[in-house]
Every structure is written in C-alpha cells, then in structure tokens.
Amino acid sequence: MNIEIVDLTEQNLDDSLEWSGHPFSCKYCIYWEHPEECVDPATVCKEEMFSKKIAWLRRTLRDFGSCGKLLVHRDDSEFPLMRLDL
C-alpha cells in the first residue's frame, strides 16, 4: 500500500474523489473559505463552489504558501488519487 501526505494543490483538489453526499465533499465545501455563503450549501451548484474554492486556494498559495495536506493512496490505475478504505 502506497500512502502519502501531499500538499494541497489545484491539481490534486481537482483530482480528488467526489462523494455521493454532495455538497459535503471537501472538493466543494467552502465553509472555511466563505462561511457567510454556507447557509444552505445544497442550494449552490458544484461548479460555483469549486470555482470559489480554487480562487481561495490560489490566493492563499500566492500569499502564504501551502495551506493544507491530503492523505492519498496512490496506485498505478487510471485514477492516481484514491480513497483509503480501511
């Protein structure tokens, strides 16, 4: 099993898995970035949420550097970032 802790980047955020329980996937959650807009995240489209998250990530990377980590399970399949099932 090849498990790594990696810095959060635009690419690995984009590659991260989507959960069937949207909008509760971290890929679309903007609670920490825009708490004032999270009254009912189920009413906001995923693309809009993802766009805001990417914009926040770019600003944060530019101003402060890496702002998060992801635990990933890598394999040689078509999907390099996979959920770790324990």
Give a short summary of the structure:
This protein has helices spanning 10-15, 46-64, and strands at 2-7, 69-74.
Characteristics of this structure?
two-stranded antiparallel ribbon; alpha+beta; 2 helices; globular; 86 residues; 2 strands
Describe what you observe in this structure:
The chain is α+β, with helices and mostly antiparallel strands and 86 residues long. The protein has one domain (2-74). Helix content is 29%, strand content 14%. The chain has helices spanning 10-15, 46-64, and strands at 2-7, 69-74. A two-stranded antiparallel sheet has the order 1-2. The longest helix has 19 residues, at 46-64. The radius of gyration is 14 Å and the shape is globular. The N and C termini lie close together (11 Å). The mean pLDDT is 79.
How do the strands and helices of this protein lay out in sequence?
Blueprint: E1 2-7, H1 10-15, H2 46-64, E2 69-74
Antiparallel strand pairs: 1-2
N- and C-termini, Cα separation: 11 Å
Q: In which range does the helix fraction lie?
A: 25-40%
Tell me what portion of residues adopts beta-strand conformation: 5-15%
Rg from Cα: 14 Å
Low-confidence stretches: none
Number of domains: 1
Instruction: Report on the biggest sheet.
Output: 2 strands, antiparallel
How many distinct helices?
A: 2
Mean pLDDT: 79
N to C succession of SSEs:
EHHE
Principal-axes geometry comes out as globular
Query: What's the count of strands?
Result: 2
